Write the C-alpha cells for this entry.
Amino acid sequence: MMMARSNALRDGPGRWPAASPLNACAACDARPFSVCSAIHECDLGRLAAVAEIVEIAPGQTFVDEGEAARHFFNITRGTVKIFKLLPDGRRQITGFLDAGDFLGLAVDRTYAFSAEAIDTVRLCRFERPKLIGLLDEFPAFERQLLKWASHELLAAQNQMLLLGRKTARERVASFLLTRNRRRCPGRVAGTLVSLPMNRTDIGDYLGLTIETVSRTITRLKRDGLIRLHGSDAIELLDPAGLETIAEGFGAA
C-alpha cells in the first residue's frame, strides 16, 4: 500500500503547480536556513532547473524504506516524520524534519527509512544524479551538504543517548527543547513550540507509551514549566528548568 501511494505521487498527483521552480526558489521562506542558501541568487536558475516542486498531503508516505533511492528532498514547508518498521509492525520514529531540512543524503542505493507528511508539506525534489552533478560547479553547496550530513550524525548520537539512558521526564524535556531550538533559534522563555505531530508520534520517537507521554506533559504543566495551547502547541515557561531536567539534574 505504501509503495502504491509513493508511485502515484511520482506519476503526477501531489505536484504543486502554483509557481515556476525559479520563482519559487527566489521567494522561498526556507532558503535562508536551508542547504540552498549556499547557492548565490544569480545562480538559482541552475538549481531550479533540476528541482521539482511537490506538495504532499497530510498522512501521505512519499519515501518507502527499501525502495530505490532516486531522489533528494529539501523541505520548504510543513513537518515530516522519518521512521522504520519492524517485521512485527512496531514503529520507531527516528526524527522529525521541518522547513529547511534536507532529506535523503545519508542513503546508498535504497532508502533506509520511510518518510510521511504530518501536515501539508511542500518540498523540492531532486533527482540524485542531477543534483550530484551540480556539486563540482558549486563547491559551497557541497560544503553545505557535508555540514548537513554532520548534523544528521550528531542528531543520531543524541537520539541514542536519549533512548538508552534518559528517563521519561528527561526525554520529554529534551524533545521540547530540541523543537524549540529548531523552530525558534535564539528565542528564550515564553516561546510557543509547534507540535504538529500527535502524542502517539511523540511516544514512538521517544520510546514511550502515549500514556507516559501524556502523564509526563501533565506533570511538567503542574510544575509550572510549560503551558498547553490546545493539542498542537506548548509554551515553554521555564526553559532553564527544562534544561536542568533534560541534563539529568532535575527531580525524577
